[in-house]
Amino acid sequence: MSTLVRQPLQQRLQRVVRQDVQSMHAYAIQPSAGLIKLDAMENPFRLPEGLQHELGDRLGRVAINRYPNDCVAAVIAALEVHVKAPRGCKMMLGNGSDELINLLAMACDVPGNTVLAPLPGFVMYEMSAKLQGLNFVGVPLTTKFELDEAAMLAAIAQHRPAITYIAYPNNPTANLFDEAVVERIVAAVAEQDGLVVFDEAYQPFSSRTWMQRLTEHEHVLVMRTLSKFGLAGVRLGYMVGAPALIDEIDKVRPPYNISALNAEATLFALQHADEFARQASILCEERARLQRALASMPGLTAFPSEANMILVRVPDSK
Question: What is the predicted pLDDT for the residue at 3?
Fold first, then answer.
């Protein structure tokens, strides 16, 4: 009679889980109970009480016994109108922009391909690339947190990245990069047959966008999330670009990735977009007030912000 020998769990994990995953740290979300929560750059406002009740009644009528289908098409149609998506472009949805970043890496997972992004930047660009087996190249920003044009162009020429991310405005520095430099980078990526993804997560607070320029550049995508709009808990992102390009990326999207409740909450929010615009306006006014206060403090350097955060350099304490 054979005896079944059970291996310790740690030994089993070492055999079945990728070594690079074992060496990683999970995305950390710090507890915030009892604190003023600023670390995730969320919209701090909740819905007015009347809209809370209206949303609750509406969500209660959603057919949660059915898989989401038509509601997703309704969200795309409503978003295309809301963002003034250029005629001839196509939109796809993701469970936040995090999922869209993962889907891009999956769709572009050709052996030897590279993802390129300025640093510091959004951590998910590098994480999604490495988890998918892609190379990642980070190009440091200048000391003033601007794009290092020469370094970016050299890296593009050397590595011919499949995907180049430009956070617009940048996360975590909150600034918009010089437009002329950005245009030259977009052109350089085009010459190398790569894609440029403008991550406009903070668009509600920004004075510029590449959305209306998509028809000029078939290799450019604009990605956004509704998290900063005021729906961080809903988890809905969207990406717009040339139909042929969106169709290829959409092939790796899991079915029913947007829940019916999330879709209905998004439709509700878009119907009350004026309330969210009012909230964004208040945040921009408070941003300006804080910028003025920081500018009056000796030794501090507050950098320009087009997001709902401000990067501040403080004096060396030594």
Answer: 60
Task: Spell out where 181-262 has E strands.
Answer: 195-199, 220-225, 237-241
End-to-end CA distance of the chain: 72
What is the pLDDT, as a whole number, of residue 35?
Answer: 81
Q: Which tokens sit at 82?
A: 């809301």
With beta carbons less than 8 A apart as the criterion, state whether 117 and 165 touch: yes
Beta bridge mates, 135: 114
For the chain (length 318 residues), average pLDDT per consecutive 10?
A: 69 87 81 82 93 97 93 96 97 97 96 97 95 96 97 98 98 96 98 97 96 96 96 96 97 96 97 96 97 94 96 84
Q: Using DSSP, state whether 93 is helix, strand or coil.
A: strand
CA nearest neighbour of 79 among 229, 193, 180: 229
d(CA 272, CA 266): 10
- Reported as half-sphere exposure (CB side, CA atoms, 13 A), residue 207 has a value of 9
Question: Identity (one letter) of the amino acid at 256?
Answer: Y
CA-based nearest residue to 240, from 232, 231, 227, 249: 249
Joined tokens for residue 13: 């994990």
HSE-up (13 A, CA, CB side) for residue 101: 26
Sign, CA torsion 227/231/233/234: negative
Q: Based on the number of CB atoms within 10 Å of its own CB, is 70 exposed (0-12), middle (13-18) or buried (19 or more)? A: exposed
Q: Which H/E stretch holds residue 268? A: helix 260-271
Q: Which of the 8 DSSP states describes residue 62?
A: S
Q: State the Cα–Cα distance between residues 165 and 175, nearest whole angstrom.
A: 15
Enumerate residues 6+ apart whose C-beta is below 8 A from 168.
176, 177, 182, 198, 199, 200, 206, 208, 209, 210
Q: What's the CA gap between 195 and 103, in Å, rounded?
A: 14
